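Entry 14. Structure prediction run on the chain below.
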Amino acid sequence: SIHGAIHVAALLLLISSSGFAQAFPAAHIVLVHDGLLPTLITDPAFDQGSGPEYADILGAGMTNTNNDLLVAQKIRGAFPQVPPSGFDGYSWRFDTDLNSNTGYQQYDYIGIDWEILLQPSDGGWTVNKWSPSGGYVNLPAATILVQHSATGDVVGVRFDANEIGRPPYLNWIAWNGVAPDWEDVAPDHTVSW
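Output returned:
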């Protein structure tokens, strides 16, 4: 059950690689109760290096229901309603062809074909997708989900699986960081599927 929703009315401005401005609606943010987010794999606390507690991943998970993908991270601390300065955002990275030798090669155990990003934009949050061939594209239909907890909030994104090619199988990781200064990856040194 959804117990509250915040509709953000402002338009976000993203500058395309060609230099032309494109306007996109802000992401929809929904507060949720326990049980609506995916089961989370665990990740050690305090492994984000010099990064802030709201970027320390304690767990990550994903579900696929009726062509909607839901990705989530449990973080150590509260989800910042206003994006902090100098934080790149929350990220989920997907290997949709199950080949670690294709896609973006940040780590030897996953070839990143797609990425879903919850990123700061104009004082709020927006959801984008990224691929090596397509670059960054805004996902105005995506929904940001936040579950508050005394042990650390859970932040998630619900989006249409067609946005990443609707793969029948995939490997994934969660990633937070400010490259190259610090990062936290879940799971550590492997993928989840």
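Residues 37 and 72 are 7 Å apart (CA to CA).
Filed with the rest of this week's runs.
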